[in-house]
Fold:
Amino acid sequence: MDRYRMKVNQILEKDNFSKDEIVLLLGTEGDEKILLFKKSAAVKEKHIGKKVWFRGLIEFSNVCGKDCLYCGIRKGNKNLKRYNLSDEEILAAAKFAYDNRYGSIALQSGELESQLVTSRIENLLYRIKELSDGKLGITLSVGEQKPEVYKKWFDAGAHRYLLRVESTNRDLYRKIHPYNKKHDFDRRLECLKNLQEIGYQTGTGVMIGLPFQTIEDLAGDLLFMNDFNVDMCGMGPYIEHADTPLTEYSGNLLPLRERFDLTLKMIAILRIMMKDINIVAATALQAIDPVGREKAVKIGANILMPNITPGKYRDSYKLYDNKPCTDESAEDCQSCLEARVSLADAEVVYGEWGDSKHYDKRRKDEGRI
Ligand code: 5AD
Ligand code: FES
Structure:
């Protein structure tokens, strides 16, 4: 065996990696990459099994108060029809999820902070709990908020929160956001801390293949997830959106295929490092490869988020160009995904929340339960 192969093998024997080791693993190709994927698939099988849980995704509004330079629904994008689902439409989507035995839903929207948003979401949470007999798990993904707002929503029944940090390198964070108080790296970290302390299963994630991003940055992102002790993670490739300022830098990007590949390697390495967390197979993977999400499931991901937003709005929640499944209905998404999951030699679990085992362990370690 040559020395490089031996080195990769040696690293894969461990489950705590140094930054240099992660950089090396992110650089694997060919046979060595297969070794990495075999290992991560085995870790998944051992600690999670072949299971995949659904989170029915309701993108309930594309109105956003922020201006992230990469995002298609940024406030400054005037080429976009804004929408906001009615409460009835949101509840109907939640009911669809419950009737179809999805264990959980995820409510996602642009980022807005206001009294109105706070009480609207609080009210929706109570009503969703009511219509599902308390059985539907609820993830929120509605951005940075004050701790008391997070607490209010937690008390109303939300138990998971996704807030992607986007990049853990603060210089890179600054380059891909406007430089002002509304886009403050430290506040984002503060929010993540608050969520964790309140008791949410807390998820974060990053984009992969951003302009100015290095392999070392990505290795740093994985170390951050470990140090921060996240319960869930959603990472996806960065995909340019023509109506955003960051497209100006498209010339220097990695080809889409390489961003895709790098995302799979990030998922695989994270699965080896954090065996019992929930990892999402992000929709953006499918924008690059028609079976991208299934590939992610095979090598480590265990969560899929079928889109159950009413069809007529889907085209307007375009975070990036070429977003898949924007012209399908919720029923289509389910049968399509189920077939896809079985292709990935995995199986959808219905009627269960599918909580991250990591969460219970973390809470015990913290002496909270
Ligand atoms: N490419 C890929 N992902 C994007 N997101 C926003 N814009 C893009 C883009 N251009 C992701 C961000 C955000 C999530 C909802 O969508 O990571 O947190
Ligand atoms: Fe909406 Fe970034 S543009 S949160």
